[in-house]
């Protein structure tokens, strides 16, 4: 099997992670190029990994040395860069969220369909083994009919820069909580029909000044009659905290933070096991499996497991959450393309 030649555009934290995994861990693909507008960063990563490096996305595409690209740039650049890649005949894995709003997301879906190329969206939790076990249990009927979905997501430290500007990132409902609403759709096997969102910005000053929220909660109502609850907090002093459950008529499927139970500290206060401090470690293997699934969809001409329509629907839910917050009432989610 010929390896897929993949480039990474955007060398922030997640982009560098993708580049390293493509360089060292994937079996179906290999890293051939990296790109970032910061020349020093692009050069240092490219030289360290022994691949071509660029500061101009179009120039990288013009060289015709890539079959596919991972776009890990800020959200407000996704539509422009995805369009350029598809026009150049390059398959795309674009980090979540797909776009800032439904209009941009719809445009990406239409372009992907017209191109005949593969487009995958970076919701890596779908590739995590713990979440996949929960999905299998639900599909096999082990927990019975799903009645309730609950998700709690709390980050150790608040984001900075463009991420806290809703006009550039889509805000907390798209940048952070779209992971959880995507999981809700996937685990429950049903679409979210209505949302009722509330939130505040009293924890972090720079988030409040940028117009985003640092604390948000969303009530969900699914088309099939089930209900859900999602909570997102941008700063959590104890560290990264992720909990998800699906309650059914026969039982409950739980997914929690991964705990290292091979070592512990025992004192008069009890036994403390080591947790995972940040999501790159928690989801390292999920990121690898995500990249492998992307390559497989291209090499075997399969539908990507998280396609452009999935990305569009996550954006539609996030947009409905913002509308609900403004109106202070439940809002129906409209998915029409």
Q: Could you give the order of the helices and strands? A: EHEHEHEHEHEHEHHHEHEEEEEEHHHE
CATH evolutionary superfamily of the largest domain: Dihydrodipicolinate Reductase, domain 2
Largest β-sheet summary: 7 strands, mixed
Derived from helix and strand composition plus strand pairing, the structural class reads alpha/beta
Q: What sort of overall outline do the alpha carbons produce when their principal axes are compared?
A: globular
Number of strands: 15
**How much β-strand is present in the residues?**
25-35%
According to CATH, what is the class of the largest domain?
Alpha Beta
Q: Can you give the mean pLDDT?
A: 95
CATH architecture designation of the largest domain: 2-Layer Sandwich
CA-based gyration radius: 20 Å
Query: How is the largest sheet built, in terms of strand order?
Result: 12-11-7-10-9-8-15
Itemize the secondary structure elements and their pairings:
Layout: E1 4-9, H1 13-24, E2 29-35, H2 39-49, E3 52-54, H3 57-62, E4 68-71, H4 78-87, E5 91-95, H5 102-115, E6 119-122, H6 129-139, E7 146-154, H7 166-169, H8 172-175, H9 178-188, E8 192-200, H10 205-210, E9 215-222, E10 227-233, E11 241-248, E12 252-255, E13 260-267, E14 270-274, H11 279-282, H12 284-299, H13 308-327, E15 331-332
Parallel strand pairs: 1-2, 1-4, 2-3, 4-5, 5-6, 7-10
Antiparallel strand pairs: 7-11, 8-9, 8-15, 9-10, 11-12, 13-14
């Amino acid at each position: 099997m010929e390896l897929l030649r993949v480039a990474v555009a955007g060398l922030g934290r997640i982009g560098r992670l993708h580049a390293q995994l493509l360089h060292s861990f994937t079996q179906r693909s290999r890293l051939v190029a990296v790109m970032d507008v910061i020349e020093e960063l692009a050069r240092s990563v490219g030289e360290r990994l022994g691949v071509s490096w660029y500061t101009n996305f179009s120039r990288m595409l013009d060289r015709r040395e890539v079959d596919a690209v991972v776009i890990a740039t800020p959200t407000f650049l996704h539509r422009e860069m995805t369009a350029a890649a598809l026009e150049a005949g390059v398959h795309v894995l674009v980090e979540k969220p797909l776009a800032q709003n439904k209009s941009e997301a719809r445009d990406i879906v239409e372009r992907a369909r017209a191109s005949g190329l593969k487009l995958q969206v970076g919701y890596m939790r779908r590739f995590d083994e713990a979440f996949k076990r929960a999905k299998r249990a639900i599909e096999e009927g082990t927990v019975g009919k799903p009645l309730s979905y609950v998700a709690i997501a709390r980050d150790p430290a608040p984001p900075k820069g463009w991420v806290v500007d809703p006009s550039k990132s889509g805000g907390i409902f798209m940048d952070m909580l779209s992971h959880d609403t995507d999981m809700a759709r996937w685990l429950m096997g049903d679409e979210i029909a209505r949302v009722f969102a509330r939130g505040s910005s009293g924890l972090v000053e720079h988030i409040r000044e940028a117009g985003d929220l640092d604390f948000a909660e969303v009530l969900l109502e699914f088309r099939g009659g089930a209900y859900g609850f999602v909570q997102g907090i941008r700063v959590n002093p104890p560290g990264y905290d992720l909990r998800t459950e699906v309650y059914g008529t026969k039982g409950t499927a739980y997914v929690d933070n991964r705990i290292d139970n091979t070592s512990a500290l025992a004192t008069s206060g009890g036994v403390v096991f080591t947790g995972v401090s940040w999501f790159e470690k928690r989801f390292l293997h999920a990121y690898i499996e995500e990249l492998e699934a992307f390559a497989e969809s291209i090499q075997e001409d399969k539908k990507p497991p998280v396609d452009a329509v999935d990305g569009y629907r996550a954006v539609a839910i996030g947009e409905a959450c913002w509308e609900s917050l403004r109106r202070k009432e439940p809002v129906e989610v409209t998915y029409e393309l």
